[in-house]
Amino acid sequence: MLVLITYDVNTTSSGGQKRLRKVAKVCQNYGQRVQNSVFECIVDATQFTSLKLELRSIIDESTDSLRFYQLGNNYKNKVNHIGTKESIDVEAPLIF
């Protein structure tokens, strides 16, 4: 399933920059960055649960924010892109 993850980490607080980098690194392990604080991740249910747990353990819930949008398996009909930074179809055949 495709999950869209957005986050807002308060970098003015103590440790905010470090949390921001950690959140981005975890998201990169599961998917691809499509905008500064937005990732598209193709995961199964187990991976999604692990991803949420990892991210929740990093953020400060009193100052930071995470949003998960589950677009499901039929996501190609739900995503339209206009402009630069076209994302890579990670499920397409890889040709060298």
TrEMBL record:
Alphabetic keyword roster: Antiviral defense, Endonuclease, Hydrolase, Magnesium, Metal-binding, Nuclease
Residue numbers binding Mg(2+): D8
InterPro entries: CRISPR_associated_Cas2, Virulence_VapD/CRISPR_Cas2
Enzyme Commission (EC) number: 3.1.-.-
Top-level taxonomic group: Bacteria
UniProt enzyme class: hydrolase
Cofactor or coenzyme needed: Mg(2+)
Family: Belongs to the CRISPR-associated endoribonuclease Cas2 protein family.
Entries under NCBIfam families matching the protein: cas2 (TIGR01573)
Primary role: CRISPR (clustered regularly interspaced short palindromic repeat), is an adaptive immune system that provides protection against mobile genetic elements (viruses, transposable elements and conjugative plasmids). CRISPR clusters contain sequences complementary to antecedent mobile elements and target invading nucleic acids. CRISPR clusters are transcribed and processed into CRISPR RNA (crRNA). Functions as a ssRNA-specific endoribonuclease. Involved in the integration of spacer DNA into the CRISPR cassette.
Complexes and interactors: Homodimer, forms a heterotetramer with a Cas1 homodimer.
Protein name, per record: CRISPR-associated endoribonuclease Cas2
Organism: Priestia iocasae
Classification lineage: Bacteria, Bacillati, Bacillota, Bacilli, Bacillales
Name of the gene encoding the protein in the UniProt record: cas2
